């Protein structure tokens, strides 16, 4: 069975510091991995994805994520956090079928303090 | 470019009343469509998905139903709302194939009183 775990309910960082939001996954076969961000009372916005190739994936708003197959992880990172990055972040993994269904983690709230 | 719309944005309905939420996608054809519910601003629960007109798959048993009368239209319905139906409802679309990301609509906030 496929699953995604985001072990931290909340991550707190100071503005200007690097941030990491953790994600681990379990999936049979090759994983397709995604990160989304959600601001209050808004829909989810796509940030980046890993399909194949380079383990370091760059996405929107300066975010990047590192795919680690041996640790089955796909952590989201940013070198310098902004207060405006404060939001709810979701990691997701794709089942290998044509329905395109995604399995989402429970989300991690990122709080960036000035 | 593609756009996804949802309406209404907010809805307050009494228990036992019917429900109809609509989602439409512009700028693409034959999308896969999804309905999610998000409770208390946390995890997403997949309710229904559709890979084509008239093709609906249900993920969880409940008093909700979905229909896809046109290629880019996805409707979520209920005959009688329950208090537990309150939540934030999100529609999403994706191109067919496993490598494509899903794109989400702005959501509908439903409060059942």
Question: What characteristics describe this protein?
Answer:
heterodimer; A: about 110 residues; mainly beta; six-stranded mixed β-sheet; four-stranded antiparallel β-sheet; B: about 110 residues; seven-stranded mixed β-sheet; 11 strands; about 0% helix; about 60% strand
SSE order and pairing:
The complex is a heterodimer of chains A (114) and B (113).
Chain A: E1 3-5, E2 10-14, E3 19-21, E4 24-26, E5 33-38, E6 44-50, E7 56-58, E8 64-68, E9 73-78, E10 87-94, E11 102-104, E12 108-113
Parallel strand pairs in A: 2-12
Antiparallel strand pairs in A: 1-4, 3-9, 5-6, 5-10, 7-8, 8-9, 10-11, 10-12
Chain B: E1 3-7, E2 10-13, E3 19-26, E4 32-38, E5 44-52, E6 55-58, E7 64-70, E8 73-78, E9 87-94, E10 103-104, E11 108-112
Parallel strand pairs in B: 2-11
Antiparallel strand pairs in B: 1-3, 3-8, 4-5, 4-9, 5-6, 7-8, 9-10, 9-11
Structural class of chain B: mainly beta
| Cα shape of chain B | globular
Task: Tell me the total number of β-strands of chain A.
Answer: 12
Shape of chain A: globular
Contiguous uncertain segments of 5+ residues of chain A: none
Alpha-beta classification of chain A? mainly beta
Largest interface chains and counts = A-B, 27 and 28 residues
């Amino acid at each position: 069975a496929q699953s995604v775990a985001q072990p931290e309910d909340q991550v707190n960082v100071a503005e200007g510091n690097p941030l990491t939001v953790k994600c681990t996954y379990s999936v049979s076969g090759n994983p397709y991995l995604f990160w989304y961000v959600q601001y209050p009372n808004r829909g989810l916005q796509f940030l980046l994805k890993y399909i194949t190739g380079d383990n370091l994936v760059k996405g929107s708003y300066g975010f990047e994520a590192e795919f680690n197959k041996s640790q089955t992880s796909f952590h989201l990172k940013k070198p310098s956090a902004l207060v405006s990055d404060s939001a709810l972040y979701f990691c997701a993994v794709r089942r290998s079928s044509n329905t395109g269904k995604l399995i989402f983690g429970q989300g991690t709230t990122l709080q960036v303090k000035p | 470019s593609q756009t996804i719309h949802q309406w209404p944005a907010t809805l307050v309905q009494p228990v036992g009343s019917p429900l109809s939420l609509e989602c439409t996608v512009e700028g693409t054809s034959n999308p896969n469509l999804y309905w999610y519910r998000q409770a208390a601003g946390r995890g997403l629960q997949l309710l229904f998905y559709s890979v084509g007109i008239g093709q609906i798959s249900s993920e969880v048993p409940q008093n909700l139903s979905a229909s896809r009368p046109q290629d880019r239209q996805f409707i979520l319905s209920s005959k009688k709302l329950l208090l537990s139906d309150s939540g934030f409802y999100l529609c999403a679309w994706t191109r067919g194939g496993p490598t494509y990301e899903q794109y989400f609509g702005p959501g509908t906030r439903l409060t059942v009183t």
